[in-house]
Predict the structure.
Amino acid sequence: MKLQSIASALIAAAICTTFVPPVHADRNAGLDRDFPRPLVIGHRGAHGYLPAHTLEGYALAIELGADFIEPDLVSTKDGHLIARHEPNMIATTDVASRPEFASRRRTAVIDGAADEGFFASDFTLAEIKRLRAVIIALAKRKSEEKGRPIGIYPEVKHSTYHKSIGLPIEKRLVAILSAAGWNHRDAPVIIQSFEQSNLKELRKLTPLRLIQLIDANDVNPDGSLDFTAPFDRPFDWTASGDPRLLARTFGFLVTDEGLREVKTYADGIGPWKRYIVSTVAANLSGPGEASLKLLPANNLIDRAHKVGLFVHTWTFRNEQRRLVSDYAGNPVNEYLQFYRLGIDGLFSDFADTAVAARILFELESNPDAGRCLIGDRDGPKRHQPECPDQRD
């Protein structure tokens, strides 16, 4: 059976199913109660099918079964927050072809790297399609339509840069969430950032769950991670000039000491998946990552769980060049590996595949669960007393 057919056959049931939470439920009280496990987060919407950070993409991710949708937040000139992957809009809009904006092309230094283009902070909200509050409204409306909770997973982009130009994001984000009634611990919101100091600031501003993202530049041929700038460390560490922080890379955050430090200001970590399962050069004939082989998984998930942190990893894709040879060209095999390792959630460009794999994982773990997978896109139709989640 083709993967697409599997996804189509299982997606309706997946949308209606709330799985039994894993043993580390205390890390995610509220999330475990209301959402399936592991979480499937629509990466920039449904980036495998539609352009990133569009309402259509967010809506499609929800239709495909995503539990959360991910807006990356940057600031406009007049201090509004919009969903864009980066402050530079040259690659994601038609701004370069608009003669009225030609004079705004410039070079900016963001996280230590020069970048030429058109920057959101040089445009007013009136000049950029309004996205600030619409995403929250979309999530709420779709939650009502689908009869299941849908959350948002905003990323605060380039916090140090935005503060340097007088447009800090953090307090405005909390104000927006407060106005929407979503600034409380049980709200379906998780805030993420690659920087550390702004997460510490947010910890004082909001009870919402916070996640420390953990990056790297690449994987070396031997499977070790490459920490070339600007992906060597959180940029606020670089900007601080503090010798203690300059001696660290992102890799510090996955040590036992680093995990304990993260626990003081955040609820989880979001490491690139190569921190959990790395790759080595294998000189195979496949394109991209298909030429590589996997190394054995490490114990990062277990170590994070032991200090009370949840683990969400990224990014999962269907394209052959994105799949290491061990997965035999089938993206479901990658999802199943991480689900079996105990991951708490993951970001996917193809939420339908992630959800279909989650169904297979549940059936693998509990063959009797099949009797509970009865439903459609409008909500659960189950009435068996042994099934979790008896919402009608």
Summary: The chain has one domain: 3-87+131-358. The first helix runs from residue 3 to 15. The first strand starts at residue 39 and ends at 42. The chain has 13 helices and 19 strands.
